[in-house]
Amino acid sequence: MKTTTVxxxxxxxxxxxxxxxxxxxxxxxxxxxxxxxIKFEPSTPNPTIQALMTAYNATExxxxxxxxxxxxxxxxxxxIGGDPYFLVDGDTLTIxxxxxxxxxxxxxxxxxxxxxxxxSDPNTPNGAIxxxxxxxxxxxxxxxxxxxxxxxxxxxxxxxxxxxNFEEPVDGLDNESNSxxxxxxxxxxxxxxxxxxxxHSHGTHxxxxxxxxxxxxxxxxxxxxxxxxxxxxxxxxxxxxILAIDYAIEKDADxxxxxxxxxxxxxxxxxxEPLGLAIYKAGLHDILFICSAGNDGADIDASTTHxxxxxxxxxxxxxxxxxxxxxxxxxxxxxxxxxxxxxxxPGLAHSSVLSNGWDYKAGTSMAAAYTTGTAAxxxxxxxxxxxxxRDAIIGGVEEVGLPVSSEGVLNGNLAxxxxxxxxxxxxxxxxxxxxxxxxxxxxxxxxxxLMEWWDGMDREITVRIHAAQGRLVLAxxxxxxxxxxxxxxxxxxxxxxLFFLT
Length: 502
Ligand SMILES: [Ca+2]
Ligand SMILES: [Ca+2]
What we know:
The protein has helices at residues 6-18, 46-56, 202-216, 238-250, 274-284, 364-379, 386-395, 412-420, and strands at residues 31-40, 58-63, 70-74, 87-88, 93-94, 108-118, 142-148, 186-188, 222-228, 235-237, 255-258, 262-264, 288-292, 306-308, 317-324, 329-330, 343-346, 348-353, 357-362, 398-399, 408-409, 439-441, 449-455, 459-467, 472-480, 483-489, 499-501. With 502 residues, the protein is α+β, with helices and mostly antiparallel strands. The protein folds into three domains: 6-118, no CATH class; 142-420, CATH 3.40.50.200; 439-501, no CATH class. The strands form eight sheets. Strands 7, 8, 9, 11, 13, 15, 16 and 17 form an eight-stranded mixed β-sheet that branches. A hairpin with a 3-residue loop joins strand 18 (348-353) and strand 19. Helix 3 (202-216) runs parallel beside helix 6 (364-379), helix 4 runs parallel beside helix 5 (274-284) and helix 7 crosses helix 8 (412-420). The longest helix is centred in the last third of the chain and has 16 residues, at 364-379. Bound molecules: calcium ion (CA) (2 copies). One calcium ion binds at residues 168, 174, 176, 178, 180, 183.
């Protein structure tokens, strides 16, 4: 796929993954008309992109700074090079005529239509609250990003648990130069505002479940980063979610709770679909992504309507179905799928809502939040990778024969036991998300070598320095402090040459 054109990519998406042209007549339920998300290969020259925008009559509405996704609005019928290769008619992507022209003009990593994401929880909060067991917490700091409708920041249940961006005083300025003004406890990517204030209640409720989970485990080292991607009507867009994921990567979150999703009539491949690629990129930064399985009461493995991101086959996703208690049977509204859904968790929760209130809500959103809370507690036990935490959550369920891959229900104590049965992995500077700020200089060097990096927290990191041929020169653990760090590398001047870090 490295040398396809944008046109070819769209063509391949449709031919390879969507099916014959006659299946494209209907629009997927959550599509946003006329909006396309594109991520170009980094080597794509800017004039080529500009020429394509002109040819498509495209307006760039937004761009994600870290992962470099672009949101384009396409207001007219599109014809490329005079050849009716395909067109976007404003409602759906449709192949007009397949052919062999213009296939190698442009490289892209990902492209797809923008979709509405929503929580889609049922309004039926009845039944019994599940009795739970809570695993003891460790002492390592953990940051959980909640991508949802925002938060009521002054709610007494939540106000002492906000993550804070200490580089960003609230003064009307973008102090740490990430193009966002006053992003102090997160950001509102739905309205492009500094305060991710909740106007719906869903995000406040989900955040409250997560806080309750780690308070019950005695944890006091977890912060919640609030990233708003849906509005008062419970809906937002994939692109707002991508901006939020981009931010979570930039700010070194450990886990993302995503009690949202979208339906598509087309099976989508995770590496090409923009949201899938953004989640994959988060995985490269050791971020665990926990999402709801959806609330259509369907087996999404078999259904003709697909639900994403639950169905993306990515190693850093945990997809969560909902059960009712005390029977631990699947809730009638909950989606399931032995391939697409990993675990189940309680669907009913009593948690914080707007106006300093408390209320019941039910749905796979709540089930995902319970799972995120447990995963965050597991992550406070230092030295485990998010892959180990995911394996422990899925491997440590209470098995009750549910139609999900683990066949079971989330169980904090079993998950912690599963985690403790595997040895902690040495975390490296790259796995700690520092690879973008680490630098060695002068490099090449024939004498003293200095390492500098910026960190968002106080912790210990592992650094490995290799010579140019790959030989390990030095491996050590270092104290890393929030802010700018400097370290004189102790190896002698005889080790001259070019060095790199892992
Ligand atoms: Ca800022
Ligand atoms: Ca500021």
